[in-house]
């Protein structure tokens, strides 16, 4: 009987220390692991042959014992406002979407270039307004391939806008805190001083539906990133109607309040609430007043979003500009810091809640 082929070590996701240990296990000095780190995360090497500073015999043994998880580009669309949505295939054959969002100034220059990454294929959370929620959860995106989404968009940003990515948001497909280890590892790679980015954690935002226990975990580890909570409704009744996660007492508004107070006490950081207005559902004066109470749990700000219609989800309507203005006005009078985010990239379905792949490999 033939022996089963030995499993290869997936290098894209390993930290610098883990690559040092890996190199030593291969009979190499630890600094070879640091060289590997640079090839993978600074130079973006896609093959071992490219790693010219490594000895040939080490490269040969790498080719036999290890692999570099690849992200295969399969499509790209650019919206009228220059937002770019890219489609990538994972090693599993499933696909994810990544969005590059330029904030253009009056002269058309993009000082801020934000990449919105996907942390999962599909999502188990099933929010009623979300295209990704129409798919079930399929798989977590490994840390190295979250990193790779940013790197690919960074190359594109250099080409199109003359400079690289400035901000990263975990707001694409999936609930980041359900891929907790992968997300934290990817933050470590993005912020590593020897990597391509060495990006400040303050320029990274992790967005969650409000998984209370994981918010407490995040408070303990404090990677230094910003936290956004997708709130979208100000009472348990309304929130449970559109976000099944709220139905559990472990993740309802009371649990969320406890977790956010703990998070703020531990880290001193503020919180951003994302609140998408749905016509005649959560856009009334009472909703705004109740939201203002929530916004006072800890120092925070509120981002108001207009709902983007999603094909296959006809339950919700877009609120009117008048109701949006009235809602924002009530919040401001209540002393809440509020910003209205006009969605970017709507012409290519790249706006919040619209990321979805039909052909997800199953
Ligand atoms: S809004 Fe976020 S958490 Fe909710 S289903 Fe969509 S991807 Fe999942």
Strand order of the largest sheet: 3-4-5-6-9-10-11-12-13-14
**CATH H-level superfamily of the largest domain:** Aldolase class I
Unreliable runs:
357-362
Total number of distinct structural domains: 2
How far apart are the termini?
32 Å
Helix content percent band: 25-40%
Rg, nearest Å: 22 Å
Count of extended strands: 14
Which band does the percent of strand residues land in?
A: 15-25%
Second CATH tier, the architecture of the largest domain: Alpha-Beta Barrel
Mean pLDDT, as a whole number?
90
Descriptive tags:
362 residues; DNA polymerase, domain 1; alpha/beta; ten-stranded mixed sheet; disordered C terminus; 10 helices
What is this structure, in a nutshell?
With 362 residues, this protein is an alpha/beta fold.
How would you characterize this protein structure?
The chain is built from 10 helices and 14 strands. The chain has 362 residues and is α/β, with parallel strands linked by helices. It has 2 domains: 58 residues, Orthogonal Bundle (DNA polymerase, domain 1), CATH 1.10.150.530; 277 residues, TIM Barrel (Alpha-Beta Barrel), CATH 3.20.20. A 10-stranded mixed β-sheet has the order 3-4-5-6-9-10-11-12-13-14, covered by helices on one side. The C terminus is likely disordered. The structure holds iron/sulfur cluster. The site of iron/sulfur cluster has 13 residues, from loops.
